[in-house]
Automatic annotation (TrEMBL):
Domain of life: Bacteria
Domain Adenosine deaminase stretches: 21-367
Name of the protein: adenosine deaminase
Enzyme Commission number(s) of this protein: 3.5.4.4
Length: 373
C-alpha cells in the first residue's frame, strides 16, 4: 500500500475528512500514478525520467502541471503513459490506483483512461482494457484483505483530436460486462468539438451506455452546448465555465439578482452533474475569468444556485492532491461544514454510472458513514 495519507480535519478538529466515505467520479488513471511506481516501471523498460527519486519526481510533475494552460498540463502525461504500455505496467498502475483510492476513504470510484494511448508495445485495445480490469480486480481484493470495501467502474475515453471515437465506443460496449460503466472524450478541448465524435455518441445512445464529456474547462459555453446536444452527456467533465452563463447584478440597495442563461438553466434544472476539480481548474486556467485563487472558483456560486456539484481530483499526481485534500481546501475557502461535504457525496452517488439499486446502496453508505462521523 502507499504511504499513510495526510490527515485533514474540519474546523474545530472534531471530524476527520479522511474518515468520511467518498465517491470519485472524475479521476484519470494516467494522472494518478505513484512516483515510486513510475520509477520502477521506467527502469524496467529503460525509459529516462527527469528525476530518479520519488519526492523529486512528484515535485517535477506538480511544477510542470501548474502552468495555467491545459495544453501544457497535458504534456506531463507523456511520461505516465510511457510506463503504461505493457500488460504488467497497466496491471500494476491500476492496482496501485485502487489501493490509493481506498486509503483516501473512497467507497466508489470511476477511473477514466484512454485505451488508444496504450498500444505502443503491441497490445490490442481489448488487451489493454482486460489488463486494467485485472489490476482493478487485484486492487479490490487487496483492499478487502485489509478490511475495507471499494467498488470501481471504468470509463473508457476517446481522445478528441483523434479519429477513433466510434472504435472506442464499440470497445466500451464490448466490455460493459467486464467493468466498463461509461464513455468519455478528453484531450485538447478548444478546436475539437464534441460533434466531431457524433458517430460514437449516436452509437452509445443506441446501446444505452452513459456518457460524460470533458467540456467547459479549456473552452466555454459552445463546448458545453456540444457536450449536451451532440454527446447527450449526463455529466460534464469539469463544466466549470457554465458559470459564464450566469449573470449577477448588484443594485445600489445591496440587492443581488442572479439570472441563468439557457444553457445554465438546462444544466441546473435537469440536474446534469458538474464534475468540478478545484485544484486542477486553477492549474489549467479554467477559472481565469474569475481569478487565480480558490476563493475565486465558481464552485460555491454554482452550489448555492442549486447545481449538482461534485468534488473531484482530476489527476492526483499532477495536482499533488487527494479527494480528502480537495474537500479540505473547499471547506477552508468557503466555510463548508460536514453537512455540505455530505451533499457533495450524495450528489456523486446520484450521478454514478451504476444501476439504480447500486446508487441507492451508495447513498445509504454515505448517509451512514456521515452519521457516524
Amino acid at each position: 500500500m502507499n504511504t499513510t495519507p495526510q490527515e485533514y480535519l474540519l474546523p474545530g478538529g472534531a471530524i476527520s475528512i479522511n474518515a468520511l466515505p467518498k465517491i470519485a467520479l472524475h479521476d484519470h488513471l494516467d494522472g494518478g500514478l505513484r512516483p515510486s511506481t513510475i520509477i520502477e516501471l521506467a527502469d524496467s523498460i529503460g525509459f529516462e525520467l527527469p528525476a530518479t527519486d520519488a519526492a523529486s519526481l512528484g515535485a517535477w510533475f506538480a511544477d510542470r502541471a501548474n502552468s495555467g494552460s491545459l495544453v501544457e498540463y497535458l504534456k506531463t502525461f507523456d511520461i505516465t503513459t510511457a510506463v503504461m504500455q505493457t500488460h504488467e505496467g497497466l496491471v500494476r498502475v491500476a492496482r496501485d490506483f485502487i489501493e490509493d483510492l481506498a486509503a483516501d476513504g473512497v467507497i466508489y470510484g470511476e477511473i477514466r483512461w484512454a485505451p488508444e494511448q496504450h498500444l505502443g508495445r503491441g497490445l490490442s485495445l481489448d488487451q489493454v482494457v482486460e489488463a486494467v480490469q485485472e489490476g482493478v480486480d487485484a486492487g479490490i481484493e487487496s483492499v478487502a484483505q485489509n478490511g475495507s470495501r471499494i467498488k470501481i467502474g471504468q470509463l473508457l475515453t476517446a481522445m478528441r483530436h483523434a479519429d477513433r471515437g466510434l472504435e472506442i465506443a464499440e470497445l466500451a460496449v464490448r466490455h460493459r460486462n467486464n467493468g466498463v460503466v461509461g464513455f468519455d472524450i478528453a484531450g485538447a478541448e478548444l478546436g475539437f468539438p464534441a460533434r466531431n465524435q457524433r458517430a460514437a455518441f449516436d452509437y452509445l445512445a443506441q446501446e444505452f451506455l452513459p456518457v460524460t464529456v470533458h467540456a467547459g474547462e479549456a473552452d466555454g459555453l459552445d463546448s458545453i452546448r456540444g457536450a449536451l446536444f451532440d454527446g447527450r452527456a449526463l455529466r460534464l467533465g469539469h463544466g466549470v465555465r457554465i458559470a459564464e452563463d450566469v449573470t449577477i447584478q448588484r443594485e445600489d440597495d445591496a440587492s443581488t439578482f442572479v439570472t441563468l442563461g439557457p444553457i445554465a438553466q438546462w444544466v441546473r434544472d435537469r440536474e446534469i452533474t458538474l464534475e468540478l476539480s478545484p485544484s486542477s481548474n486553477l492549474q489549467t486556467g479554467a477559472i481565469a475569468a474569475w481569478g487565480d485563487d480558490l476563493l475565486d472558483h465558481p464552485f460555491d456560486l454554482l452550489y448555492q444556485l442549486g447545481f449538482r456539484v461534485t468534488v473531484n481530483t482530476d489527476n492526483r499526481l499532477m495536482s499533488n492532491t487527494t479527494l480528502t485534500k480537495e474537500l479540505a481546501l473547499l471547506s477552508d475557502a468557503f466555510s463548508y461544514d460536514v453537512d455540505d461535504l455530505e451533499v457533495f457525496q450524495l450528489n456523486a452517488a446520484a450521478a454514478a454510472f451504476l444501476p439504480l439499486d447500486d446508487r441507492e446502496e451508495l447513498t445509504d453508505a454515505i448517509i451512514a458513514g456521515f452519521a457516524n462521523a
